[in-house]
Amino acid sequence: MIKYIKALLIIAAILLDYSKSNAQHVGSIENFVISAQYLNSGKIKVTKTGGFTDIKYTVTFVRSYIPGTSNFSPFDMTVGITTPANNTTLNILNQPVRVTIKDFGSTSTRLEKEFTAHIDNSLLNENQPVNLTYALNGTSTPLRAYENRSYYPIFNWTDPVTEPGGGGGNKFPENDPRYIKPNVEFIAKLGQEIARNGEYVLVFGSDGNMVLYKENPYTVLWASSTVIEGGKLFFRNDGFVCILDPQGNVKWRANGDNNNAYPNCWWILQTDGNFVGYQSYRTAADGTVTPYGAAFAATGTANGKRSSHFGRLVIL
Fold first, then answer.
1. pTM for this structure?
2. Most exposed residue of 95, 140, 248, 258, measured as fewest CB within 10 angstroms of its CB?
């Protein structure tokens, strides 16, 4: 395996299949995030056994309109993650992936997409950053690195033992309709309940809309305001709630503050009708879950009040 590849050769390899295109592709990267479960204190946890580290990362792409029109500019981009080998060469850490205008919704200016990387540990250096690198295909624009976020690898790491489900013998209660813990996925289905507490019900319907309502009389208190038939609702283990289309593209995402990750988080539809995400939890002897750490997101429907922010979650 060739470990060290000159940056110029990287550009040539990425663009080789698309060099015949004459379109002036336009687009940019808005965000690059490695999922929290692969990080320790913000650094990439290098696998201690075996020679490879597997991670997942999410990229937010942005396309623009052709000036003076309502039509989108062509979009054709290749992305991958890299790390410097020295001042003039780069190591490619995963197979570059192509994203085109076909990946966007018909009216969407943004696309959030998750990728995986199988990284050769011998290419990593704790003193060298891991960057998202991208190129606009069919143009003379040089290879670029996303400059707003980099990650560094860490070889000797220990995950902290916390009070929540990660330690202390706590077990999250099974089959209790009030609670949702991370890494749970729901497929859009007619009348599907995902949480219930008394007269308050949270559903993810066949139209791909997550709705919180009160029974007797029926009153919608909050909704994600999404229409994604055949979609999936995913409570990630970093605190983000995502709705994906059938192709796996993230179409809606929220966690209140849109920044911090909470790998031990949990969600509860409270007795007062508010659907709340907490940073962590304790489990009592009777199986009741109580917060450990602050709440970080909510629908804002306490006491059966209709939310003033449909389509998003808010910070408490």
1. 0.50
2. 140
